[in-house]
Amino acid sequence: MIDGLRPYPEMRPSGLAWLGDVPAHWDVRRIGRLFGARRDTGFPELPILEVSIRSGVRIRDFDEGGRKQEMADRSKYQRAMRGDIAYNMMRMWQGAVGIAPTDGLVSPAYVVARPFPETDAAYYAYLFRTTTYMREIDVFSRGIVPDRNRLYWESFKQMPSVYPPLDEQRLIVRFLDWHGAQTAKLIRAKKKLIALLNEQKQAIIHRAVTRGLDPNVELKPSGIPWLGDVPEGWEVKRLRSISRNITSGSRGWSRYSSDHGPLFVRIANLSRTGLHLRFDDVVRLALPVSELGEAARTRATAGDLLLSITAFIGSVAIVPDDIGDAYVSQHVACCRLVSEVNPRWIGYVLLSPVGQAHGTLSMYGGTKQGLSLEDVKNYVVLLPPREIQNDVTDWIDKATRQISNSISVVEREIALIQEFRARLIADVVTGKLDVRAMAASLPETIELEPIDEPTDDEDLDETVDDPENEEVAA
Fold first, then answer.
1. No. of H helices and E strands in the chain?
2. Other Cβ atoms within 10 Å of 290 Cβ, number
3. DSSP letters along 40-67, please?
4. What distance in Å separates the CA atoms of residue 126 and residue 426, rounded to the nearest whole number?
5. pLDDT tens-digit map of 59-71
6. Is the sign of the CA dihedral 299, 303, 307, 312 positive or negative?
């Protein structure tokens, strides 16, 4: 608990199971008394906004890789005014909600809610993204199957919500904004440490995959100017020549996202510093029978090499033996290598500056929107005899183990900080902790720290801009 924060002196039952007791002077009101629906169309000159689970509402950047699917006809797009709440009907239960930072247009798959004068939208943006409230949202959502539920405005406006006095809403927002800024600074410092450790790791990998373990090895010209000399006895190959099959996932499968079923491997699950799949942010698929034929083409099996082909070019992973049923997204290339090649060796080569340089060159200096499968097939890889591949990969694993362990410790610290932050937000917005005195001592305006996050991989994997297909946030 933060020093100085205590429970409210007087509490009363709220009458809501998910909320429990609330401060005696707080009220419970339906959303329809706090917000009104905004259904304005016909403003094609406004920028396009999107909703991200991580960062709320933001202006969509169509210059980013994989983001060239803007609708030519904006007539169906709705206007959101600065300060409005916008949410994705199909992903509100996951926290796809936020405040419009400027006037803009949102997909017809979104709902826009304008706050009434006695409502501070920022307070409710915090509340709506708490775990307990998102569970309640799921209850009020409707659909043929649970994973396709939508929270329509008519249902949303009936939802009961806690209501502190307006001045108190603003104090709560001031405190949470301040705490968020301090948290962002702390996390940023820890991420800088992780970056330094990863630089160490990269240096070890680069030396090993370009020279092997023999410091006296004789070198020969590789025939590729940017690659330089390579050890005698090593070959320079294209990825196509050592692969049985190279493919990528199917477009639009994010609409089948679920909390059960086969694993959906996205860019977010690939690593930029190792060969492991990341399972801290998992999406699964509830595939209909009509997609089972296509599923066979995009299935990832043990030993497959996975490579990002849109955002974060060069992120890789080797599919582990215990992967189970898993399929790749449209932004991930799946390479099934020939049996004579050690997949971990190829993974380390692609993870090294050799692979990263080739990815950059394939992007024509960063002007392309992503890699094609033809680009992937043409990736340059160094190939020593299999025995050397095995020895070097074992050595890299051992040489980088302590660094990887240190990175894991710092990542766990970040996760605990984020968990504490989430718990604090939930306790404050539901009246379990009194922040009035502390908030009143803070500046009226808090200089918010930018969230030190990369562009959401999940947005690239799970956003469909065509409103006929219903936009799906990260």
1. 12, 23
2. 7
3. -B--TTSPBEEEETTTEEEE--TTSTT-
4. 8
5. 887 554 444 445 5
6. positive
pTM: 0.80
Strand, coil or helix: 335:
strand
Rounded Cα distance, 399 and 121, in Å: 51
Residue for token pair 């006695």 = 118
User: Which single residue is written with the structure tokens 């210059």?
Assistant: 63
Does domain 235-381 bear CATH number 3.90.220.20? yes
* Partners of 174 in the β-ladder: none
C-alpha angle 468-124-3 in degrees, rounded to nearest 5 = 140
74 to 32, 47, 187, 347: CA distances (angstroms): 28, 10, 39, 43
Q: For residues 194 and 411, what is the distance between their CA atoms, to the nearest angstrom?
A: 8
Asked whether 205 and 348 are in contact (CB, 8 A), the reply is yes
Render pLDDT for 330-373 as a digit per residue (tens, 0 to 9): 899 999 999 999 999 999 999 888 887 777 777 655 556 688 89
d(CA 250, CA 53): 22
Taking the C-alpha atoms of residue 235 and residue 166, their distance in angstroms, rounded to an integer, is 70
> Which are the contacts of 305, defined by CB distance < 8 A and separation ≥ 6?
316, 317, 318, 319, 334, 335, 336, 337, 343, 346, 347, 350
Residues 6 or more apart whose Cβ sits within 8 Å of residue 313: 65, 359, 360, 362, 363, 370, 371
Answer for the pair 92, 65: CB distance below 8 angstroms, yes or no. Answer: no
Instruction: Give the separation between CA 304 and CA 320, rounded to whole angstroms.
Output: 8
- For 358, the token pair is 């080739």
Residue ranges for the chain with pLDDT beneath 50? 64-69, 452-474
Q: Which residues pair with 305 in a beta bridge?
A: 318, 335
Tokens matching residue 200: 């160490």
What CATH number labels 11-187+411-469?
Answer: 3.90.220.20
d(C-alpha 240, C-alpha 22), whole Å: 63
Residue type, 13: P
Distance CA 49, CA 107 (A): 8
Fold identical between 11-187+411-469 and 235-381?
yes
What the block records as the tokens of 377 is: 């097939």
Where exactly are the structural domains of the chain? 11-187+411-469, 235-381
